[in-house]
Write a structure and sequence with these properties.
By secondary structure, this protein is α/β, with parallel strands linked by helices. The chain has 10 helices and 13 strands.
Length: 323
């Protein structure tokens, strides 16, 4: 099929074999034997039929309607459809899950957007949603974590829906602490269930692991064993190593270790510009996208012969009542 041209095909082409069924039935089945219930036709009506009167014309018309009804039903069963070529999408064959820290510290207002000071979460939503939409053609999902971890959007090729799920994420949905290990573990579980060969987690946190049942190091070893790369992003102006008693600072060393153990990359982000640069870098790292074969779009046409069959049945019913 040439690009840009539509063609016709059938969902069940073998249904066309039913077309000669009435003829076969008339030829092979034994004729009905007359009985006491037979209708006695007056001789005058029989004479009218022999002369080709009005009743003969009506009988031929009903026969034509019967055949039109049968042909329309078979055509509808065959499932005619119009095949339209779809646009080719860029695809890398990658499955990507974003694991996002939704702890209380993400409320801190120390980033900027459009010249105004804003929260860390608002900056992540803006940059993260743009990143997700750019991955059209890949399967992308979203995991959020704090006290607990939850799947906010299952891995899907509908990147717009995943981006909306990120934009609608709110602090408090899964608690206010920071369970990095559990969030990463849930992302790995979702990816491991997918059949694709190239699987990636992008983990973003602005804190240190202080909740959950697993440690980031243990889950990073599991990611390595599963062949899943984990790119980590440490968000915030201060590190745990030089916090000087400040609360809710990012554990950059732990996130660096997770990335190194799994074969991914570690990124340090202190500003919105840094975050946008990281998104571009990860997009390039997980690039290599080619134009995928166009996906054909099919428009069902069976209601049209189905409608003809319905009208034919109504016409037959009315003709018999009028006879």
């Amino acid at each position: 099929m040439m690009a840009g041209l539509a063609s016709l095909d059938f969902a069940a082409p073998l249904a066309g074999l039913l077309l000669p069924l009435p003829l076969l039935a008339a030829r092979l089945l034994p004729p009905r034997s007359g009985g006491s219930g037979a209708l006695a036709v007056p001789p005058s009506l029989v004479a009218g039929l022999d002369r080709g009167g009005p009743l003969a014309v009506g009988a031929r018309g009903r026969a034509a309607l019967t055949w039109l009804l049968w042909v329309s039903l078979v055509a509808s069963l065959a499932g005619p459809r119009l095949v339209l070529p779809g646009a080719a999408l860029p695809a890398s064959g990658r499955d990507i899950v974003l694991a996002l820290d939704l702890s209380g510290s993400m409320e801190r207002i120390d980033f900027s957007l459009d010249g105004r000071t804003t929260s860390r979460l608002a900056a992540v939503k803006r940059v993260g949603a743009e990143f997700i939409r750019r991955r059209a053609g890949d399967r992308v999902g979203l995991v959020i974590f704090a006290d607990q971890a939850d799947v906010a959007a299952a891995p899907s090729f509908d990147t717009r829906a995943v981006a909306r799920a990120l934009e609608e994420a709110q602090i408090g949905l899964v608690g206010r602490s920071t369970g990095i290990g559990d969030g990463l573990g849930l992302a790995l579980k979702r990816l491991d269930a997918l059949p694709g060969p190239a699987k990636v987690v992008v983990l973003l946190s602005d804190g240190a692991n202080n909740a959950g049942q697993t440690t980031p190091r243990d889950v990073a070893v599991l990611a390595r064993d599963l062949g899943i790369r984990v790119h980590t992003i440490a968000l915030g102006p201060r590190d745990l190593a030089d916090a000087d008693g400040e609360q809710d600072v990012v554990d950059s060393e732990a996130l660096r270790d997770v990335a190194a153990t799994s074969g991914g990359r570690f990124f340090r982000v202190r500003t919105t510009e840094d975050l946008a640069g990281v998104a571009d870098s990860i997009d390039a790292l997980e690039g290599g996208r080619d134009r995928a074969p166009p996906v054909p779009l099919r428009r069902d046409l069976w209601p049209w012969p189905g409608g003809v069959a319905l009208l034919s049945a109504l016409a037959l019913l009315l003709s018999r009542r009028a006879a």
